[in-house]
Fold:
Amino acid sequence: MNSIAFIDTEIEQKSGKVLDIGGITGNGSQFHSNSVAGFKKFLYGVQYVCGHNILNHDLKYIQDIITSEESKNLKFIDTLFLSPLLFPAKPYHALLKDDKLQTEELNNPLNDSIKAKDLFFDEVTAFQQLDNAMKRIYYYLLKDKKEFCSFFDFLEYKANDINIELIIREKFSCEICENVNLAEIILKYPVELAYCLALINTKSRYSITPPWVLRNFRDVENIIYLLRNNPCIRGCKYCNEALNIYKGLKRFFGFDSYRTYAGEPLQERAVKAAIDNKSLLAVFPTGGGKSITFQVPALMSGINSKGLTVVISPLQSLMKDQVDNLEKIGITDAVTINGLLDPIERAKSIERVENGSASLLYISPESLRSNTIVRLLLGRNVVRFVIDEAHCFSSWGQDFRVDYLYIGDFIKSIQEKKNIEEGIPVSCFTATAKQKVIEDIRVYFREKLSLDMEVFSAGAARSNLHFKVLEKGNDEEKYNTLRDLIEVKKCPTIVYVSRTGKAYSLAQRLAQDGYLAKAYHGKMDKQEKTENQDAFIRGDVQVMVATSAFGMGVDKKDVGMVIHYEISDSLENYVQEAGRAGRDENISADCYVLFNDEDLSKHFILLNQTKLSIQEIQQVWKAIKEIKPLKYKVSQSALEIARKAGWDDSVMEIETRVKTAIAALEDAGYLKRGQNMPKIFASSILAKNAMEAIEKINNSGRFNENQKVKAIRIIKKLISSKSRKRPSDEEAESRIDYISDHLGIVKEEVIQIVNLLREEKILADSKDLTAFIKRKENKNRSLTILKSFHSIESYLLTVLSNQETIFHIKELNEQAEQNGCKDVTPGKIKTIFNFWGIKNWIKKHTVEYSKNHIAVICLHEIEALEEKLTKRYEIAQFIVEYLYDKSNANITEDESNRDEVLIEFSVMELKEEFENRLTLFNTKATTEDIEDALFYLSRIEALRIEGGFMVVYNALTIERLEQGNKKKYKSEDYQKLNQFYENKVQQIHIVGEYARKMINDYKAALQFVDDYFQLNYTIFLNKYFKGSRQNEIKRNITPSKFRQLFGELSPTQLKIINDNASKYIVVAAGPGSGKTRILVHKLASLLLMEDVKHEQLLMVTFSRSAATEFKKRLLKLIGNAANFIEIKTFHSYCFDLLGRVGTLEKSNEIIQETIKRIKGGEVEAGRITKAVLVIDEAQDIDENEFELINVLMEHNEEMRVIAVGDDDQNIYEFRGSSSKYLEKLINEKRAVMYELVENYRSKSNIVAFANQFLQRIPQRLKNTPIIAVQSDNGRIKLVKYNSSNLITPLVDDILLEGLAGTTCVLAKTNEEAMQITGLLVRNGLHAKLIQSNEGFSLYNLQEVRFFLSQLNLADDVYMISDDVWNKAKRRLKERFKSSLNLETCINMIRDFEAANTKNKYKSDLEIFIRESKLEDFFNESIETIFVSTIHKAKGREFDNVILMLDQFNTGTDEALRQLYVAMTRAKNSLTIHYNGDYLDYIKAEGLKIVNDPKIYPPPYQLAMQLTFKDVWLDSFLSCQGSISKLNSGDELIVDGGCCLNSRGQIVLKFSKQLLKQIEALKQKNYEPQKAIIRFIVYWQKENSDHEVRIILPELYFERTEEAYA
Structure:
């Protein structure tokens, strides 16, 4: 026998140094040393050297030894290359796994050389046992190949010259194609052919070529294809049998023939095309045998070429159904790998793909980002990709998915890695597709993969289905019709609805009415879903009420009726869903639609909510750039990116939306998304072998029994897969996700066990964490953040309870601030609650219909949590200090110049350093404690940490290709998505058009459907939507809804509505031009037609009453969607951002503080990330408000700003307001300006009068004069006096006028307004003063407090029931029936009800009251003459306006504007009483001028509304008992410096200031006569615990008779 030695080496990878050599000779002599001389001696006299993978590995490093003189005649044998030839059948050889020798020891070359010896002699035996033909075939093909020649020499095997082709054909008769060009293959690919023939010779169904062979001999796949999977044109025994599509169908599914569509054998043709290895696109209807069309070729390829067919589908639940359905008929060749599988199921699926027992793999597009999937596919012969729901490729399809656009790149990368030139064929399937979609799919694959797809398209028509559309006015009509249809037909029925809630409520109502009905929708619990589906299939349930998620893959042939309770959102989906009826072509089925135009509106609203806007993609791009501005690769979770982008956590399907935005950015070339790759490794095994590691695990107290079992599995996996001969570019199998996938252990558990293995020193510690320390920042910043969060957490623990508690975030924030948490914000509170939720300290959920409320329940004892908190704080403090100190030590010159230093560290390192520090109390910490503190530091952003085991979510790996930080995502980049959304809008209109046609003309409707799918899309549109209708179907709103919303707007108003392109818009709106109306309609347009999400829309105004008015009008206009829009005053928005409960008294500095906090990054990004900012009364902006707007614009680069105002009506210059800020928007931001100049309010001559006066105001924005819409004239009267003291003649004039309609008297000052009111009342007229609650909050008004007390608002009550609310209203009316404030309170309650239609929250009510003013709540009435100052009347209108201008100074622009505001309040009649000459020049039609030469004395009576500064506040402390019996409207007796009640008790004392004023009035002969209580309010003295009631009366004076005479 020839002498042979078996060797193995251990090499240091970096240097190539030989560390150890092991060897054994054929007769048993052993060698184990790193001595070169000793090894040479060992090889002396040896003829053959054998090892496993020595040709490509060991021999490279021992060149010097084997090329020496004494070794030059050595021959080399490699067991690696022989094993697939000699052990091609499953389970292969026990010593092998792929290209590796199985071992339980590490770094032992002697051990591995012994294994190589055993393997070699097994290979020798296997060769000798082969039949003669196989021996000769192997010999002829491989005798001159370096990997094999020495093997034949060793065996001294030779074969005479033979006709190898003939032997192969004889040996493999009926097993390979007779017409294959074998001669060429033998010549060019002998090794590959040998491996293929070895596999074919096994006759084993599930044996496959090892992955290492596919990697190294890349033509193997092509050879097996040519031999076994490429039907010959002439036909042969093999092809006629193995590639016979009819026999395949019969074999796997038992059917004799394929399905036809309208007599066309399309299914058969598509299967034949797949068997012929063509790429194809099949458009087959629902239930049309789509699955069989790809399953037959896949199963045939699985047998013939051991091929794997990969099916990509977006529907995870459907994948599982398909696998289960195949298993039911005995086919076990299919597996799925998706997110619905548990780890054990997932591991089993991976194993089956790896070992060849699966020939069909179902995955989702997202799985293509998984390294495990890539690795799997590279290890198998992938024969075809099948793509389901292929319309998702096209922006013209009904469900375009950007992640589908990655599929082509993925397939291309697989082909390149496999070195496949011809390309892997692709089959695309969809149930419905119009011509444009078909063309898009074909173009995509032609451009991406150079594939030409053959199309097999069945028509949408089904002869056994009968369609009918019934128009129904409302839901009740629909329900009654539904019940009637079910009753009459009595057959299995599917009822389709568009929302999940509707599925439940409708099924429940049907069940209550005695029908066997169940619900089904995609978000339903998996078990309930399966149970309901199975019950329907079995026939236990007659009616399934479902969303469109039901029916896909459900094989029920006897469905006799499909009823669309709400019509589908596209014809494609409608045809697909209706097509689930009558799958048995022998039954006649009915398809009904219960149609209402409003159903289309629901689809438009849902589309707006789910649409990914260009602004949102821009926000994600900005976030990615900001995560690491100087680095082009980032690894971040979708949720983190969303938060960084400023998205609200409550956004629907937030992670999917982020991934879609990233896919859009990738498609536009801005970035490249890499594989989902947690870069976490369990490497550096310290144990010598598996036995030692297992012994350590079993003896350790750190592991529980369950962990021990799993730890042993993990360590065995790590040791067996560890190869010292791995190519440098091949990825290690020690990655955590790889271990989890293969062993079926949850990722978190793997991480926990690997950490324990590190603690036991079985695995080496790995510095796999990185902290990014900014050089400019010091550790004090991080410690300050930590301290701030710790104090907030400590406070929050005090309010937790083991009963569910509902918190109002702003109130909680204020309480925390009052308890010493200086830097608290609502964002920080939410971060803490989120962290506690993750740690399972609490359970939390947001409360329905309220963003500000959160329900929390504590799951542990508070004391235990306090201990954990203290410990975590101590560890976190240590970590911050340790890492900062580490960052300052040993800094290289290069690092000192960088902004950021990277510190590498490990959990174990921190644990040891923490425990070794010198402290009084030596706290011990587990690795879990350290990880907990690291995770916490990362969440609160005290440190930025990456890598390691902390990240248990899937991070997205993103590489920026577009590296300019200023580069923005543009509208042209958005074109594809925009095209999809525009098309989606048209699809909703088109399905509505179908329904209307079906009501009137059955045949025309069917033709409409046929044309939709068959005609060129432009031709179809021109045929059915002529002229202006093409514009109509571009709007995402129904024509009737559009007419309702915008039909009565003027051309200019419509221009503003239609302008969705201008970034900045200024609307200069004249008086009466419908400013509120245009704003309300623009808000509706933004939401319904311009795709702005409610959370990304902010409207700011100047009064809470304006905000409520907008909310009320919007609710009326668009319904419930209005509840979600943020309409705030500037101050309340700032209070919101800072998490405080706003009051008017506290609002002075709030805007400046907010600006400072935003600039400092202390405000939640989600609260200030906006796509559109709408500003009402923009002419009243002051410097601080404008700075706030600018700060918001800086934060939101692409934010649109719509400012509406009238510079002519800026009358608040005294408080800093200026229209110059409107001008800045126009001049600096280049805003588009629209002039709204049509006055709908005033009569023609009143407008002309005001226009002439307007000419006196300089530097105006508007150039066009105001135009009166009304052509008729009203009344204008000017009464010009020589005298002052105009109150008496004004009242006399009112008494003589016959006023009709609403009337308001306007005066310059509050005092004047009060005197006028008093005199009107004395003359028997019903007059009311529009008053302010100057100096106190409405919350403190006695009537308001009484109402709140009746609501029983205990601390644990958060929502007010309707019963309690209505009872409190009744009691308020009973208790204060004679109060002067009752009407105000009732109006306030009504306003709150109108703005809170769903639920009434205690905190919302309190905030509403605190932010309100008294003048917000007056009702216009024709019975009442209102009296007001000009300022309070702004924004209001009256039929009759009477203006008193006594000594009015028109010397300033502000005074002129004030007068302009006053005169433009009038609708029909304007009367001005004045004593100047500033109106003399004005001419107008119908103008009546009266000159009154009389001299009028001062008024007989004066009235004064007392405020806090007019009363002696401390005096009320002693008279609370007397005050408690008083009400607003009660009369008091004035007695010197005080007021008495009817019993003569003192209830009020005047302040020194008021006494001086009284004295001054006495000098003018006015004596105080009486006081009437106007307000009783609650007041709390500083540093006092108690509130007291104080009286603020109206004080009346009369002139003495002598003086008056």
In short: The chain is about 45% helix and 15% strand. The mean pLDDT is 87.
